[in-house]
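Collaborator request, handled under Task 6.
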Amino acid sequence: MNQIQLPETYLALSDFRKHDIFLPEMNQAQIISDFFPGTFTELTQRLSDITGAFYGGMLKQIGRLYGAEAIEQLSSTFMYDLGSRMTLKNLETKPNLQPGIPAVAKILIGAIFTSSPEYNFEFKELNDYKCELLIKGVDRYHKITQSLQIAGLLKWPVIKPFLQGVCDTMGLDVLLDIKVLKLDPDSKCSYHIIVSEK
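Structure tokens returned to the collaborator:
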């Protein structure tokens, strides 16, 4: 009988699973092999899909309960709060991170690394007075809201309040300019972002 090889992702993340208890008659190795994401890319994409589904599902339900106008309001408030929370966490855990435009860029990079794997960034300029970059890729928020037929009720990109929350939490008085260069029906996007001193 062939022994089932557990995915490398399961082995690397075993600390999260060490308290799982299977019944003796359950084929633990087969279940893990069949259902645990086999690669870190697959794991990351699944987590991103779940995050998008949660965001979209909550907005759809809010629209049913409180009307279409509540969808944009909740999205904007949520994204702003998320940006603020992420900033506070970063300032707390990274004492060398000094509030300023370069810190906004670093927090945005961290958010893409940890939370928005479908985005890529291309910096055009970064100094103490200005940050200019492109964010490209697939907008998971657009993707889920398109499938739920509520994308037209939102202001794009929905990440603008996130960036505003980052800047406000650091006490920065800046101009935030975000333009949609491309947002296709398949959710491929290109956003031009400038954060600059007033």
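The cover message to the collaborator said: "The beta strands are 119-126, 130-138, 174-183, 188-197. The helical segments are 8-12, 14-17, 28-35, 40-66, 69-93, 101-115, 140-147, 160-169. Please let us know whether this matches your experimental observations."
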